[in-house]
Amino acid sequence: MRTLILGFDSFDPTIFEEMAGDNQLPNLQKFMEHGGYSRLEVCSPPQTEVSWTSIATGTDPGGHGIFDFVHRDPATYLPYISILPTKRSVLGEQFIPPYTAKTFFEEAAALGYPATALWCSIQV
Prior knowledge:
Blueprint: H1 13-21, H2 26-34, H3 48-57, H4 61-64, E1 70-72, E2 79-81, E3 86-89, E4 92-95, H5 104-110
Antiparallel strand pairs: 1-2, 3-4
């Protein structure tokens, strides 16, 4: 069995459903008819990075640790981008995963199932 999850950030589901119903999105309509379609509840806080991390890990912000794009350093009060933490090593600066829960991609791979995540950012 194969699973494909398509998610559209900030795309109003009512508009999507109307467009699919009017045959303006024929390929996505086929996915809806022959697969599954569901609206998702918005998590709190309703922000992109929180929502996508919740989808990828199956946990809420308390489980994965992502609450916002920006955090404040308590020692200096300066803001920093919390979704891109780094550490210095002999190889230079490296990004480290900001979340504390495993993603379902990692869980699937650990069980021997091939899993790929493709994140496409499109600005319109």
